[in-house]
Amino acid sequence: MAFEPIGEVAVEPATARVFEHGWQSWSPSSIHPAADTPPRPTAERNRVIGYRPGDAVPVGLFQGEGLLAVQPAAGAPVTVVGVAAADRAVASIRAVLDGDRIRLSADGPVETVVDRGPGGIDGALARWADGFAARAGVVAIRRAPTIWCSWYHYFTKVTEADMDENLATMAGLDLPIEVVQLDDGYEAEIGDWLELSGRFASLEGLISRIRGAGRRAGIWVAPFLVRSRSATARLHPDWLVRDPATGEPVDAGHNWGQELFALDATHPAARGYLREVFTRFRALGIDFFKIDFIYAGAIPGRRHDGSITAIEAYRSGVELIRAAIGDAYLLGCGAPILPSVGLVDAMRISPDTAPHWEPLERDLSKPGGRSSILTGVGRAFQQGRFWVNDPDCIVARPGIEQREELAEHIGRFGGLRGSSDRLADLDDWGLATTRRLLAETPVAPFIGSGAAGGTSSPNAAAPDPAPAPTP
Ligand code: 9PG
């Protein structure tokens, strides 16, 4: 559907602000002065992996995916435009500053509310999120376990011996880590989840050592992603989502130096494979699952079941995973945000943290301390409403750029608390900080809800300054 006008807001151009909500976990989401240029892909190939797939967004406007808010002047009521639900389709919402007005348009059904409660844009978004979550059927938020994750020191080179080393170190340091989560690197290929890379001899063995040490085992899987050279792609080309015009597999992004394709979660045999992977992992004793790059499940294209939308296909894939893992803890990542509400226990709500501060390729969807904090703050209102927010792991070893800022951000806005250093590398500051941040796992909302009678967490947004008195 084309963009249709939905209204306009009179603004004070110098002080008006706009919140733009990005599509998936890594898509930049934050509040901007109305005259700002919002973050966009710095290269076209970054679009699918970090933003909403599709045509480039025109320059000179804001575009929120399912959610956008405008505050016309400091302290003024906030106009929130959002979708009522995200289980079939999610409209894009545009805002253009035109003199002393902001013109709004959308390419699908949306609802507009003018919020007069406390807390400025963050308060208004929090109240909007309360309603959205209720309609999506969110009833209770499950506390996240504390985790140790292999990714941010070892990356894809992690070995079984590295896991054992850290398991021993965390015991020696008496760190309060509940789940030891193996990230990317154990699998033979992206898409071939049941074959091990050469650096692992036995997942069963590793999991039983983790559990024998009194901890729980967690694992990373990118269930809807298939690397072009994987056995899954070669043996089952009919499991891939295809471009209806060319018949070629759709582009699901580039990473690990390879082209990536999307698994069709409506194909009966592909569903059988997904069920087998997660049932097997659960039977090995894993009870924490980080499902990553799951935006791939919602990429538009031709699927086996042509009667449902890409978002319905995505949701049915995540529901299948949930059914296979039962009551294990489920963390989404690289996930379309609004279509995932009600499906996961916790959600990565920002780009990756990293040893470096500036994002890779200067693209604010890419790993970097700065990109991770920007969107982690922008989506703080989702904590305790949609799920537990995962602002990404604590990396506190020497050599991490601006590690104090990263730690302070997690202390304020971390619902899920995880450590991801080689623990033996921690200095006194890093160890004390890691221990302190792992000591709590907040579930309560970070942004206070005026609607609920003004209760607010210690992390509540500061109220807006009162509007300047008129002479
Ligand atoms: C494993 C990692 C970790 C991490 C995830 C995800 O834009 N990019 O190219 C991009 C690549 C990797 C990435 C995020 C963005 O990281 O968030 O925690 O699990 O995969 O490969």
Describe the protein.
With 471 residues, this protein is α/β, with parallel strands linked by helices. It contains 11 helices and 22 strands. The strands form 5 sheets. It has an 8-stranded parallel sheet with strand order 21-20-19-18-14-11-10-22. It has a 5-stranded antiparallel sheet with strand order 3-2-5-6-9. A hairpin with a 2-residue loop joins strand 16 and strand 17. Helix 7 packs parallel to helix 8. The relative contact order is 0.15. The protein binds 4-nitrophenyl alpha-D-galactopyranoside. 4-nitrophenyl alpha-D-galactopyranoside binds next to helix 1.
List the helices and strands and how they pair.
Layout: E1 4-10, E2 17-20, E3 30-33, H1 47-50, E4 62-65, E5 67-71, E6 78-82, E7 92-98, E8 101-106, E9 111-115, H2 120-135, E10 147-149, H3 151-154, H4 160-173, E11 179-182, E12 187-189, E13 192-196, H5 203-212, E14 216-221, E15 225-227, H6 231-235, E16 254-255, E17 258-262, H7 268-283, E18 286-291, H8 310-325, E19 329-332, E20 346-348, H9 369-378, E21 388-390, H10 403-413, E22 418-419, H11 428-437
Parallel strand pairs: 10-11, 10-22, 11-14, 14-18, 18-19, 19-20, 20-21
Antiparallel strand pairs: 1-8, 2-3, 2-5, 4-7, 5-6, 6-9, 7-8, 12-13, 15-17, 16-17
Helix pairs in contact: 7-8
Bound molecules: 4-nitrophenyl alpha-D-galactopyranoside.
The site of 4-nitrophenyl alpha-D-galactopyranoside has 14 residues, from helix 1.
